[in-house]
Design a protein that fits this description.
This is Nif-specific regulatory protein. Required for activation of most nif operons, which are directly involved in nitrogen fixation. By secondary structure, this protein is an alpha/beta fold. Helix content is about 40%, strand content about 15%. Helix 11 packs across helix 13. It contains 22 helices and 16 strands.
Length: about 625
């Protein structure tokens, strides 16, 4: 059925209250700006703009046509005095060819009498406009920046042969079209963002469903620890124990050297436990004195001490229902151990400055690298507290006992560095071999430090073995390993019952023993190339002391005294060398066969003040 034309509006009667000329144009722009600033629905907003133009100007009909963002086709988005269906679809319903010409050229168009222009013949026949009707057609492009995104056109009653009125209306319409262009662009940006968010949400939901399906199928294999890198035999054993312990409420003690990842294992244990949806709270017991540690763990009420302006929950209250990780628990004093024992045994405590007893349900995971058994025997650690926290013990192996995890850990740290800094670095084969040859006495923490440092200082896209600091006498791993050769029963308990070695192995690894900074070689000594074979090479012999050196250390046995073995000189030998060199560390280093860095470390270790001559 053919759409029926809408009868044209009659010429408006003069409005005695309407402001004339420029004032009327300003009122029109003000009213339209208010409408566009609160636009929520674009179609309704555009129709309201046409209503304002009809109210303040002698507008007979009006239309707003917008170009499709992708195809660029121009279609009528809003019209006044004409049905929407007729304006968009019916032949001759709207002079769309004229609007397309304005849209493509970006030029304004003013036709004083539509009846005299053949381009409007089909439109006038259908719209019922007689040749005697004096109707003008004005059309301006709608711009968003430098781009034309549509047209705004109106039909108004022609007032006479003067073109002044048409020029004024064109200027007003151009300003209105600019306001419309900004609003349309904003709506399209919001629509595109919303579409992207919906697509992302759908993709994440699909991924979550796939993960849940995979989790259901892998339920019999136990939870996965994707955040923990390394699947060697040593770590697999630890993770199997974590899976077994996580389902219970038993307290757990994590033992291991510093830097082995005790806090990460504690977080993994919490995530796979029934308390995963509850808080996980960490406290470093060695970082606070007893008074502050008590307030931190138990909280305080207002006025409990100077500066307590209000009440504060302690870590036990915050972790209620979840897990509390007490790191370095072997560092707390015997006085505070008694206070901690009650809350661990009874689950009850009082805030500082309060007499009200509070009850909490918290699972305790403690960690230490000290030998608690020796501390209990010496009376510095309470035996009852030891038995309370040491129900299940998990010993984390040092990195030297799981060399198969060094490469995946190094690549993980490098990938994280690339993500944080926008780089695309990689390892060469000789760099990987160099990493495998090092024992890393600082464990995973030292490995992360090493990778971050070399990734920061490297100049190319591939990290070579020569880029590591140990090749430039900048690594102290060998010294750290030799200085830390005391028994390590603090990690595994009395008698080495946990299977850990009773002493650190020599740190004469491939990258540290051949580097000036780690092996203690004298200045000018050229290190041999690092072998690809991960077997640690022998330490190069130390050269004889200079002939002009006298004093307590002259002619002494190099083993245990000097730099070649990595051991620091004794106090008397060091003072004698410093006195002979005029307290210049570089000269004393040459006398002792050490590096200046080792001499400085020895001075600090023996607490020898530097004399200023």
């Amino acid at each position: 059925m053919e759409a029926q034309p809408v009868p044209p509006a009659s010429p408006p009667s003069p409005d005695l209250d309407a402001p004339p000329g420029t004032a009327r144009s300003m009122v029109t722009l003000y009213e339209i700006s208010k409408i566009l600033s609160g636009a929520l629905h674009l179609d309704r907003t555009l129709h309201d703009v046409l209503n304002v133009l009809a109210a303040f100007h002698d507008m007979r009909r009006g239309a707003i046509a917008l170009a499709h963002p992708e195809s660029g086709a121009l279609t009528v988005a809003a019209c006044l005095g004409l049905s929407a269906d007729a304006g968009r679809d019916a032949p001759g319903g709207y002079p769309i060819d004229v609007a397309v010409q304005v849209h493509r050229t970006g030029l304004r168009l003013a036709v004083a009498r539509m009846a005299e222009d053949p381009r409007f013949a089909a439109y006038l026949d259908r719209a019922g406009v007689l040749e005697s009707d004096r109707v003008s057609f004005l059309c301006v492009p709608i711009r968003a920046g430098d781009e034309s995104i549509g047209t705004l056109s109106v039909e108004r009653w022609w007032s006479g042969p003067s073109e002044t009125s048409l020029d004024d209306d064109l200027r007003v319409l151009s300003m209105v079209a600019n306001l419309i262009g900004q609003t349309v662009r904003l709506h399209r940006v919001i629509a595109a963002d919303r579409k992207t968010l919906l697509a992302d949400a759908a993709r994440m939901e699909k991924k979550a469903r796939a993960a849940r399906a995979a989790g259901d199928g892998a339920a019999d294999r136990g939870p996965r620890f994707s955040e923990i890198v390394g699947r060697g035999p040593a770590m697999s054993t630890v993770l199997d124990k974590v899976r077994q312990v996580a389902r219970t409420r038993a307290p757990v003690m994590l033992r291991g050297e510093s830097g082995t990842g005790k806090e990460m294992i504690a977080r993994a244990l919490h995530r796979v436990s029934p308390r995963a949806d509850k808080p996980f709270v960490c406290v470093n017991c060695a970082a606070l004195p007893d008074t502050l540690l008590e307030a931190e763990l138990f909280g305080h009420d207002k006025g409990a001490f100077t500066g307590a302006g209000g009440e504060r929950k302690g870590r036990f209250e915050i972790a209620d229902g979840g897990t509390l990780f007490l790191d370095e628990i072997g560092e707390i004093s015997p006085a505070f151990q008694a206070k901690l024992l009650r809350v661990l045994q009874e689950g009850q405590f009082e805030r500082l400055g309060s007499s009200r007893t509070r009850k909490v349900d918290v699972r305790i995971i403690a960690a230490t690298n000290r030998n608690l058994e020796e501390a209990v025997a010496a009376g510095t650690f309470r035996a009852d507290l030891y038995y309370r926290i040491n129900v299940v013990t998990l010993v984390l192996p040092p990195l030297r006992e799981r060399p198969e995890d060094i490469e995946p850990l190094a690549r993980h740290f490098l990938e994280r560095f690339n993500e944080e800094n926008g780089d695309s670095l990689g390892f060469s084969e000789d760099a990987v071999a160099l990493l495998r040859a090092c024992a890393f006495p600082g464990n995973v923490r030292e490995l992360e430090n090493c990778i971050t440092r070399v990734a920061t200082m490297v100049r190319g896209e591939v990290i070579q073995a020569s880029d590591f600091s140990c090749r430039e006498a900048g690594c102290l791993s060998a010294i750290l390993g030799r200085e830390l050769d005391a028994p390590t029963q603090a990690v595994g308990g009395p008698g080495g019952s946990t299977g850990l070695p009773s002493a650190h192995p020599p740190m004469d690894c491939g990258r540290c023993a051949t580097a000036g900074g780690g092996g203690g070689a004298p200045a000018g000594w050229t290190p041999p190339p690092v072998p690809i074979d991960p077997t640690p090479p022998a330490t190069p012999p130390r050269p004889e002391p200079p002939e002009d050196m006298d004093g307590p250390g002259a002619g002494a046995d190099v083993e245990g005294d000097g730099g070649g073995s990595g051991r620091l000189p004794d106090r008397e030998r060091l003072i004698a060398a410093m006195e002979k060199s005029g307290w210049v560390q570089a000269k004393a280093a040459r006398l002792l066969g050490l590096t200046p860095r080792q001499v400085g470390y020895a001075l600090r270790r023996h607490d020898i003040p530097i004399k200023r001559l």
